[in-house]
Specification:
Order of helices and strands: EEHHEHEHEHEHEHEEHHHHEHEEH
CATH topology of the largest domain: Aspartate Aminotransferase, domain 2
Strand order of the largest sheet: 3-9-8-7-6-4-5
Number of strands: 12
Distance between the termini: 32 Å
Number of helices: 13
Helix content: 40-55%
Bound molecules: pyridoxal-5'-phosphate
CATH class of the largest domain: Alpha Beta
Radius of gyration: 21 Å
Number of domains: 2
CATH architecture of the largest domain: 3-Layer(aba) Sandwich
Shape: globular
CATH superfamily of the largest domain: Type I PLP-dependent aspartate aminotransferase-like (Major domain)
């Protein structure tokens, strides 16, 4: 376990030593951005740390409302609701849509928060092959007559793959299904303005597409959100037990969200730099004949044939001053990989150092 003794940026301090940091999901470097930190400090001074109350009782501040309005404007939706964590988003959405679906179709490699969100008992659950819209179509055909809901990650957390949402959307429309996209890793990253996977694929506005999103990754803060029509947000506020019975996002964290969203919207070049950095790494890793995935996203996996090898590579990097962790995560446990997480704040020199070390390890451990 990496012990952090300070903030996360493109470098970290761990046990008194400085490391080049290719971990976490601070894609745009906003977690320690001076403007975000200042906004948090001001909010702590005014509001304290926490209201110790749910949004539904006495936990809503003007900051929460301002953040929701900023998120709705960013997403081009009527409204948005923020809540305590991104992980809760899938549960909240599946909770309020209950009664409108009877079978849930899930990507086989879906995130743990998606699996946890399936209401027990009342619905049937079917897993379709990973990113395979054809198999999804087959399963939907086979289960004709049910009211289907399809749920997938937008960008997959471990592999950086983008779900083929254009194909999935066609299948969803054919079967009049509801589509839910967990865009935790795509918000602020994909799409012309950073709105996520539906924007990346230029999907039309459609009341049957829902996104669950988080401010804890590209936005560098914390907390989940769902945007949509007033009827969706009202159902959350009035009908979700998860929303009503959990403590509100702490106000300083709401302030962080407002500040980072403003930075994101004013600096589209951050996203370009992020994706260029990620592509430089992915391209080089592919050239070195490591097994990886081929998407323009900030998660670059290096997949190895044993856990020992993956751990060995991560340790080699760490001994040479670079953190890129071996992933032991409750999704796709059978895959042995390190995950390189790229940020817009990584410098060319940092990337060169990482690539040089990867090449050294490869030459020593996998040359024929
Ligand atoms: C796909 C996906 N969904 C949801 C979450 C949960 O988001 P948060 O960490 O903001 O609660 C994560 C984060 O780890 C994730 O990778």
């Amino acid at each position: 376990m990496i012990l952090l003794n300070g903030e996360v940026g493109n470098y970290i301090i761990s046990n008194g030593k400085k490391y080049s940091y290719f971990a976490g999901n601070n894609y745009l470097g906003l977690a320690s951005h001076p403007q975000v930190k200042e906004a948090v400090i001001r909010a702590v001074q005014k509001y304290g740390v926490n209201f110790a109350a749910s949004r539904h009782t006495t936990g809503t501040s003007d900051l929460h409302l301002e953040l929701e309005s900023a998120l709705a404007s960013f997403k081009g939706k009527d409204d948005a609701v923020v809540f305590a964590s991104g992980y809760q988003g899938n549960s909240i959405l599946l909770e309020i849509l209950k009664g409108r679906y009877s079978t849930v179709f899930i990507d086989q490699s879906a995130h743990a928060s998606i699996i946890a969100a399936i209401p027990t008992g009342a619905v049937r659950v079917m897993f379709y092959d990973h990113c395979d819209a054809g198999h999804l179509d087959y399963l939907l055909d086979y289960n004709r007559g049910s009211s289907p809901l399809v749920i997938t990650d937008g960008i997959f957390a471990l592999t950086g793959e983008i779900a083929p949402l254009n194909q999935i959307y066609e299948v969803v429309r054919k079967h009049s299904a509801i589509l839910v996209v967990d865009d935790a890793h795509a918000t602020g990253v994909l799409g012309e303005t950073g709105k996520g996977t539906p924007e990346h694929f230029n999907l039309p506005e459609d009341a049957n597409i829902h996104q669950t999103e988080t401010m804890s990754k590209a936005l560098g803060g914390y907390g989940g959100f769902i945007s949509g029509s007033l009827s969706v947000t009202e159902m959350i506020r009035e009908g979700s037990a998860t929303y009503q019975a959990s403590t509100a996002l702490p106000p300083p964290i709401a302030a962080a969200g407002i500040a980072s969203l403003a930075i994101l919207r004013e600096n589209p070049d951050l996203r370009t730099r992020l994706l260029d950095n990620a592509w430089r790494i992915r391209d080089a890793v592919t050239g070195m004949e490591f097994q990886t995935t081929h998407f323009r996203t900030p998660i670059v996996p290096i997949i190895l044939d044993s856990p020992e090898k993956a751990q060995g590579l991560s340790l080699f990097l760490e001994e040479n001053g670079v953190i890129a962790p071996f992933m032991n995560y409750p999704v796709r446990k059978a895959m042995h990989q390190i995950r390189i997480a790229v940020s817009a704040s990584h410098t060319d020199d940092q990337i060169s150092q990482l690539l040089e070390l990867l090449k050294q390890w490869k030459d020593k451990n996998e040359s024929n």
